[in-house]
Design brief:
heme binding; 4% strand; Cyt_P450_E_grp-IV; oxidoreductase; two-stranded antiparallel ribbon; mainly alpha; Cytochrome p450; 339 residues
């Protein structure tokens, strides 16, 4: 999970092709739609007498996100949307562990690394969290491996993402790391993004109505199953999401450790220094965006050359771009289309 350089590159090369292919993502429209429909039913039951959702609704969003990612990365429904989920249940432990891991990895990486010499409390808890994740993923991946042994396969299209990785690599460890990557990064990041998107939609009635009109036009029959091609036509809805990411970036930026000395904007930066591309700042700078303080999804639909392509960069860029970005976009689009 924290490999760099050649070790990271070897792993990435083994899983990148099946994950990033659009054809792979298309297979998960129906499964994620099913999860999202269950989530909507869950939300309807969770409303109080005034029609309001509970204060801990953000945790419910995490549960939806985990259920979606579990279906993709582990080939299973984890039961996250069960109404009687307890604080000590496996599902809630996954959510809590993912939050802890993602929100503390920067502390371990950027602050004084005492944990390299002594097992600090933070490091010990982090290791225990990761061990829990590995055990969990291994359980479901071994089950998928056993199913694959008896599955009749005529083409790659018959295989899920997990099955493709298991079949091509033959190493459950590769599949485990892939699942860890998708789950750990996906649960918290997607959940916080969705909370922000829903809040902006709820407080911006003009843009909300434009999205609703587009969804009604592209998807006139709510009972008809969603298709990838229909979701691709939701241009304004996708522009709304990009504008939320621009103004209210879910993460502060993208960090990289320089592998060699470099000169950036006239500054000499030595090898080993952490460099951050602060998307939460650059997305709101007038030299990259016209009228950056104005919330205007239409700017992403115009081709006037005045908008820098990096003004919204939620998934990074280049070789280390987010592995699960296509699935993240798919989950968000399906939720907005169904809600």
């Amino acid at each position: 999970m924290i490999r760099h350089g050649e070790q990271w590159r070897r792993f990435r090369s083994k899983v990148q092709r099946p994950i990033l292919q659009p054809q792979t993502v298309k297979k998960y429209v129906a499964p994620i739609e099913m999860v999202t429909e269950d989530f909507i039913k869950y939300m309807e039951k969770a409303r109080d007498e005034n029609g309001d959702l509970p204060h801990e609704f953000d945790n419910d969003i995490h549960r939806w996100s985990l259920e979606c990612i579990g279906r993709v990365a582990l080939d299973t429904r984890l039961g996250c949307l069960s109404p009687d989920l307890t604080s000590d249940s496996e599902t809630q432990r996954i959510i809590d562990a993912a939050k802890f891991a993602l929100r503390n990895v920067a502390v371990l990486e950027l602050k004084a690394p005492y944990w390299r010499y002594i097992p600090t409390p933070l490091w010990t808890r982090y290791v225990n969290n990761m061990n829990f994740f590995v055990e969990l993923c291994s359980k479901y991946i071994n089950e998928a491996l056993e199913r694959l042994k008896t599955k009749k396969v005529t083409s790659e299209n018959d295989l899920s993402l997990l099955e493709r990785v298991l079949r091509s690599e033959g190493d459950p460890k590769i599949a485990t790391v892939m699942a860890l990557d998708l789950i750990l990064v996906g649960i918290d990041t997607i959940s916080m993004a969705v909370c922000s998107i829903l809040y902006q939609a709820a407080t911006r009635l003009k843009q909300q109505e434009k999205m609703a009109e587009e969804i009604r036009r592209v998807l006139p029959d709510p009972s008809k199953p969603l298709s990838y091609s229909d979701l691709d036509k939701l241009h304004y809805t996708k522009a709304f999401v990009r504008e939320v990411f621009r103004m209210y970036s879910t993460v502060i930026g993208n960090g990289r450790t320089l592998q060699e000395d470099d000169v950036i904007c006239g500054y000499h930066i030595p090898k080993g220094v952490q460099v951050v591309f602060p998307t939460i700042v650059t997305g709101n700078m007038s030299q990259f965006v016209s009228d950056p303080e104005e919330f205007k999804p239409e700017r992403w639909l115009e081709n006037d050359g005045r908008l820098h392509p990096f003004a919204s960069l939620p998934y990074g860029f280049g070789a280390r771009i987010c592995l699960g970005r296509r699935f993240a976009d798919l989950e968000i689009q399906i939720l907005l289309a169904k809600v």
